Amino acid sequence: MIPIAYYLVLAAVLFSIGIGAFLIKRNVITIFISIELMLNAVNLTFVAFAHKWHQVSGQIFVFFVMVVAAAEAAVGLAIIIAIFRTRQTLNVDEIDLMNS
Amino acid sequence: MQLALFLIFGALAVAGALNLLFQRHPINSALSLVVVMMSLAVLYWSLGAEFLAAAQVIVYSGAIMVLFVFVIMLLNAGEEKRTSGSRAAYNVGIPGAAAILCLLTFVFLSERDALGTANLGGRLSSTVDNIAELSQVLFTKLLLPFEVTSVLILVAILGAVVLARKEQ
Question: Number of structural domains, chain A?
Fold first, then answer.
């Protein structure tokens, strides 16, 4: 018997760490990893609220988020490979073709 | 029992996330994310979502993270260089993230009584188990979205193959 609020606070902590990593990290793969961390934090709130309302819809939502995250990871990593092939770098500061 | 589970695996998840933040090498960040995902799977299970706990281990830490590690090794990504980075990200982004954390924590803790408590392995409805309930909704009411996601996955695979292909 522990309050649902604790799960939600844990999800908020993970989400904020994800935001921080997204902003601080300079490696494009690590930035992508922190997006996955934020998705996971949101999934935890969905499951906690599904438990609170005794509704299965929250869990179905998490299922669809997982599917879309898998598709996103496949396409995103392919884009990273394509970028690396043309620019020879993974540092986001050096990928500034549209900045000049 | 549940409090102990929550404390152990919640602390493990936060430690993994912080390790992700402080490690310089991408492979270490990826492996710390695996730790976070495994502890989240335990938390899902303790909230009565057995199917999602299994899917989290198989899909997230099994498939997606293997893809990440594979790409990191393929591109031979070294330690990231310490560059100055965007000034706006440090000046606005970090306080913004802290503000979001404080706001959410305040709201959740002040609504703590209204949100209720969680019971270990509590089923959503007492008659059927979690997987039966999930599949009942997924294959009757949400059959079309379910099929559309399979098309989405197919398109994503084709897109990944086209993007990662060597140009002639």
Answer: 1
Q: Using CA atoms, how far apart are residues A21 and B30, in angstroms rounded to an integer?
A: 12
List the domain range (segments joined by +) for residue A47. 4-87
| Candidate from B3, B153, B164 with C-beta closest to A78 | B164
The residue of chain A with its CA nearest to that of B57 is A66
Cα–Cα distance, B122 to B129 (Å, whole number): 10
In CATH, what number is assigned to the domain containing residue A69? Answer: 1.10.287.3510
> ipTM value of the model?
0.91
Helix (H, G, I), strand (E, B) or coil at B35: helix
φ, ψ dihedrals at B9, nearest 5°: -80, -25
| Selected residues 12-41 of chain A with any CB under 8 Å from a CB in chain B | 12-21, 23-27, 29-30, 32-34, 36-37, 40
Residue A93 lies in a domain: no
pTM score: 0.91
B10-49, pLDDT tens digit by residue?
Answer: 999 999 999 999 988 999 999 999 999 999 999 999 888 8
CB contact under 8 A, B71 and A80: yes
